Amino acid sequence: MLRSRTLLALAAALFTTPVLAQTEVPFALDWKFEGPAAPYFHALDAGYFADQGLTVTISEGAGSLDAIPKVATGAFPVGFADINSLMRFLDQNPDAPVKAVMMVYDKPPFSVVGRKSLGIESPLDLAGKVLGAPPPDGAWAQFPIFAAETGLDMSTITVEPVGFPVREPMLAEGKVAAITGFSFSSTLNLKRLGVPADDITVLLMADHGVDLYGNAIIVNTDFAATNPEQVTGFLTAVAMGWKDAIAAPGTAIEALMKRNPAADAALETERLQMAIDANVLTDYVIANGMGSIDPARMANAIEQTKSVYEFNSPPDSTLYFDPGFLPAKDMLMLK
Fold it and tell me: 169: domain CATH number?
């Protein structure tokens, strides 16, 4: 009897499909669960991460700089952060195991958002005005480049350090004339606070001579070295999530609303569409696919950064961005 049971157990083992081990991959966002985060939640619900052998959990962030130390310390293997802030972080921490591996915001949403009724319609209108700027804000970090490119004398501006939660309310109340922030976040937050759309001025820095890239997927390079297939799988799922979100934004927002039921679905759909149109689906991305960078443009971005930041070591794009984990180009084409 014992022998029969043993044989049955062996047979069952031979004909049972093995369960593949899933790799745990916590993912640190840059900001709250808002429209531009929807593609990642959609990829999660659609099973795209699971299909790559990944168990992904997504955590909100507190600004463009937030995910960088989280990933550098290994607390999170992957994150979403401003590549320009990453450049400065790595210059100050050259041995930190963190690098960008997939560009998402090909055209960064860094902007100055003001109100026409408070005299803001062009960059030079900021002279003599009060500008609200959160110190950890990625847009504020690039403001000196914006000022240099537009001929704005920063000494003529009163800069008011503000917290993220009060940034748009202060502008809505007229306590500041303009703020720095991401275009899609600040614009729609102001609309939600009752500021008329025709009273809002959005000065996208990329439209005023700032040739920088924006937020990218970053990885802990120690994790990537031992899990290269998992990193490529993660980027594959991200691309699929964005492709679906571009084709059907409402479906992606449904995944977001499950995590943030207090959000306004219509507003977050508009926020996501703004990010798609202005930041993600650029002419370069349509032609070349998502995720890569143009070396000549990156070189110019570094030169612009050098004009306002003194590097400790010679800057080199290979120190900050590694395209080697990207999936095949056909997986990155969004349209």
Answer: 3.40.190.10
